[in-house]
Design brief:
Structural class: alpha+beta
Shape: elongated
Oligomer: single chain
Largest sheet: 3 strands, antiparallel
Helix content: 25-40%
Strand order of the largest sheet: 1-5-4
Radius of gyration: 18 Å
Order of helices and strands: HEHEEHEEHEHHEE
Number of strands: 8
Length: about 190
């Protein structure tokens, strides 16, 4: 998995069904399967939010507690995990996942959608009095002033998508290019 912080796995509260062995087996009943997919989506988003994971590497995730409950000796296999992530990438799954490549080995996990991040960024700019100030993208995601913000260490592509949402709203303008970008908030 990519971009995880030092959050301890043991302080994460797993979904109650995580302790139920059938949770790790795709269910044949359509209604039950739908609920299972929703539960997996909720778990994945919560886990990624807790560990500040923006980009999920499937191979790494399969070996992590996210998909492997060692207490139960149960794990979600690669095909089943990919099926869950595929479902999360659909309208039914709320578009909470976006595959980065056709190989479907790595994906963005939107525990907040780019539009939601845009609002979070705009609120932070307002709260900190940064309107009409140009900030670098580095300052937004790596700066000391953002250490306690959920967007600290955000994946640069997700940041760009979020800033584009603000540009569409007329709340920001992006300057520069190739690693030298800045943004002015209105």
């Amino acid at each position: 998995m990519a971009q995880a912080t030092s959050s301890n796995t043991f302080d994460f509260n797993y979904h109650p069904r995580y302790s139920f062995p059938p949770f790790f087996t795709p269910q044949p009943n359509v209604v039950t399967r739908r609920q299972q997919l929703e539960d997996w989506s909720s778990l994945i988003q919560s886990y990624c939010r807790h560990h500040r994971i923006f980009v999920l590497l499937l191979a790494d995730a399969l070996e992590s507690p996210l998909f492997w409950n060692k207490t139960l000796s149960r794990r979600l296999g690669p095909v089943a995990a990919k099926d869950v992530l595929d479902w999360m990438s659909t309208p039914g799954g709320g578009h909470r996942v976006e595959w980065i490549s056709d190989a479907k080995e790595t994906c963005y996990v939107y525990w907040r959608m780019p539009e939601e991040w845009a609002s979070v960024l705009a609120d932070w700019v307002e709260e900190t009095g940064q309107k009409n100030t140009v900030l670098t993208l580095y300052e937004l995601t790596q700066g000391d002033n953002t250490l306690k913000q959920d967007f600290h260490d955000m994946d640069p592509i997700i940041l760009q998508k979020s800033l584009q949402a603000l540009v569409r709203r007329g709340k920001a303008q992006i300057f520069g290019g190739d690693g030298q970008q800045g943004v002015k908030f209105f």
